Amino acid sequence: MAHSTGPILAAGGITILDKLVKGTGSTPLSVNEFLKVGVATGIAAIGLAAFEHISEPLAVGVAWIVVITVVLTSSVVTDLVNITGEGKK
Description:
mainly alpha
């Protein structure tokens, strides 16, 4: 398995768990939403694994940047928006 695959799969898992825990408002979560995340995660993992043949450190770095971005945007930023009430109309 490529070294960038683990972080990318972790990012996809975090995204799915965030959608599952927080939901999408009053509508129930659909299988289609989870399928979109799964397919996008798979494509990203394959793309980064192929990119590792050119530059392994860069591909692994990009994978970890994705994980950090997903963690920050899925939990911290949305919680701050919910707490402050910004963006609600």
